[in-house]
Amino acid sequence: GLGVPADPTETIPPPHHLIPSPPHHIPTSRQPTAPTSHRPKPPEVMIEVKADPLGAFEARYKDAYHCIELDGAVPSCWPLFDVPVHPRFAAVSEGEHSLRAAITDLHGEWIDHATWSPVRRITVSETIDDSAEDGGEVVVEPDAEEPPETFKLDIPISEIVRPYEMAVLTTSFFDLQYNVHTSDPELFEDHFNHSYACGSLDGNDAHACWPLYNVDYYPRWASLDDGVHTVEVVVTHPNSAEEIEGSWSPVRTFFVYTATDNSNALGAPGGAGGGGSDSGGDDVVVLSIDVGETTFTLPVQRSADYTHVAEKFCAQTGVANHECVEAITREIFTEFQKKEQQMFANAEASQRAAAENAAAEAAAAAAAPHRFPTPQGGVLEVPRISSAVDAKMIEAVATCQQEHDAGDVGLSCLTDQSQLFGMRDGLSAADQEALLDFIGNLGAAFGF
């Protein structure tokens, strides 16, 4: 597995992400035998990272990812270093698009928002102007001496391994693990070793792609909102780079639940719905629901459409009936009522605890002795006995301090000590002992 990089001692300035300017139109690949029919080449993104010093940055972030946000969708991520191919997208529709890139660490956290590149705008077109590029001539490659050998393979079948169906992820990023099944694995690898696996997250039109072979990392998406998400995977053709329609995996549904303040309502793909609240986890309940022999976990946010959440869950688990929807909707309401009752009880308990702590602190302060610094650098403690005795002891301390500062012999200090000695009558044995200890320490504390 990948390790967490150690922090270097030097400070490394944040890197700058640059996306080199593409041509105004992404040209389509040409078919020599049919020059009037063009298909768009899957857009690839070349990213340049500038950091100073680059060596220290690479040492610290050797396991980092660069992530590309296309048209504001959830960013798709590729390892930042040692990746032999450029990030690629498939099924990008005609028209104008925007993209930008930034860097995350191994754990999917943006290392610095300053690393976001400026937004780059591109245009994808199904056709190109041949006359503008080639002086009106149609370029036709010469026929090969021998036609290339063709192979017929069964359509591969894609399968998502992780995330599991109806899984609950507690991070805002996830790595996609998948398998591709084929009837002849060796022949398939020989001819598909330059193909890609492309993923569709939440039904987005454009699909991020990763090499099918010769990689040691998983496809990744970052910065997902809390909510219900779906993902599919498909294989591209080695010649045309187009997605093979029959190779799509079944749709995999999963939840993201990070309990962050910016959580969106669970119940709509892509986290659509009401915004989060200030209470974080107090606005979310997590249900455990048994369907047959399987237990599913269903997180629901307070602002979600409970009926929609229930309908989605029942459909995904194959129990698409009114009773299922009604039971889960009722359970959601019940759990939030329990949470409100618990919140009220917790608030009352917190208030009681705060009052008890305040009373205990006041009692401790009342019982704590007064403390006065002495000329010798020590501390003289005045015990708590009674208001009258306490006031006289504090007065005696002030008298002794004044005489010491004036250089007197301490006759007034001795007089106050005698008066305090006369106040011992009527005190408890413990208070008498505390008073006598104070009298004995008072003169010595000021050098008398």
Notable traits:
seven-stranded mixed sheet, alpha+beta, 448 residues, elongated
Could you characterize what this model shows?
By secondary structure, the chain is of the alpha+beta class. The chain is built from eight helices and 23 strands. The strands form seven sheets. It has a seven-stranded mixed sheet, with no helix packed on it. Strands 8-16-15-18-19-12 form a six-stranded mixed sheet, with no helix packed on it. A two-stranded antiparallel sheet has the order 1-5. α4 (306-316) packs across α5, α6 (387-406) packs antiparallel against α7 (411-422) and α7 packs antiparallel against α8 (429-445). The longest helix has 46 residues, at 322-367. Residues 1-39, 130-142 and 261-280 have low confidence and may be disordered.
Count of individual beta strands: 23
**Arrangement of strands in the largest sheet:** 2-10-9-6-7-17-13
Number of helices: 8
Percent of residues in β-strands? 15-25%
State the major sheet: 7 strands, mixed
Tell me the overall shape: elongated
Helix proportion? 25-40%
Give the N-to-C terminal Cα separation. 76 Å
Radius of gyration from the CA trace?
38 Å
Query: Which segments are poorly predicted (pLDDT under 50) over 5 or more consecutive residues?
Result: 1-39, 130-142, 261-280
Q: What's the rounded overall pLDDT mean?
A: 78
Q: What structural class do you assign from the helix and strand content?
A: alpha+beta
